[in-house]
Write a structure and sequence with these properties.
The structure is a homotetramer of 92-residue chains. Chain A has one domain: Methane Monooxygenase Hydroxylase, Chain G, domain 1 (Up-down Bundle). The first copy, chain A, contains 4 helices and no strands. Chain A starts with a helix and ends with a helix. At the A-B interface, helix 1, helix 2 and helix 3 of A face helix 1, helix 2 and helix 3 of B.
């Protein structure tokens, strides 16, 4: 079973929030909202998408790069944590 | 009239594409698609969102920071072009 | 006089710090330091470079896109502030 | 032996180029060069730093998250390649 299956509920809730945000941007554009307000909505949507991306990357790292059915040493797990810390720092 | 009104059709077409992409991500998650495929869909959606952001920033720069009802010198317009080139280089 | 002249002292102090950080990375690589430590040094250096970039962009916006010798309306100044807030959010 | 030792020569050559680029920015600021030119120099330096970062992350992934002394399956190696493709797409 893939991590996208295991975390399905959490990931679906993230993407549905993103879909809702894109609908809010659509409504703001249709309603000819303020440019500044629309910029903020787009920035928030991008933040949510980066959050989803970070979660997918983390699952990919822990379930596909590392193999949960094999012995993984503590130093490998620590290295994976360090990698995720760097990735999250960039994904924003 | 704001640039988000002037460019409304173009901006709406961008956000509708983004909404469609977020629906494709939702379907892929629901259908338990491959992690790699989902990562690609999210990366494409983020690219489309960055494109929308760049277009909003450009409108903001040309219609709000610069004032179309005033005289704007060629060197100011050139400076705005240079600024947009830098912003686009970062927004990806 | 350009903003890079006006802000020369502040900008020079930023780039000298960046040069110092790149020398620290060089020493860490020569001394075969820990990968994790080197990743942190590179991330900090990139943060400092983004800070320099944001300052250059802000100067460019206020001194070249806007023209300090002309009348700039409060709403244009506000729009410039909003643009910088968005740019800084992305430059990290 | 760490990957930062194994790839020492290549990594050192990257950081020395970055140091040279930061010196060029310093000279341009001291010589009161054009803002546009300085923005370009900073953008290039940031690109080089991102290249160094990507190389460090790749080494970290292949030598610390994965353990070269253990059996790594082809699907794990493929997952590592996919992860690096995503990381490089973001690091620019």
């Amino acid at each position: 079973m893939s991590h996208t299956t295991k975390d399905k509920k959490k990931l679906l809730s993230r993407i549905r929030r993103i879909k809702g945000q894109s609908e809010a941007i659509e409504r703001a554009l249709e309603g000819e909202g303020e440019c500044e307000e629309i910029l903020q909505l787009v920035a928030s949507c991008r933040g949510a998408l980066n959050g989803l991306m970070a979660e997918l990357i983390e699952g990919h790292l822990r379930f596909h790069v590392l193999d949960p059915s094999q012995n993984t040493s503590p130093s490998q797990l620590e290295a994976a944590d360090e990698l995720m810390a760097v990735v999250k720092r960039y994904l924003n």
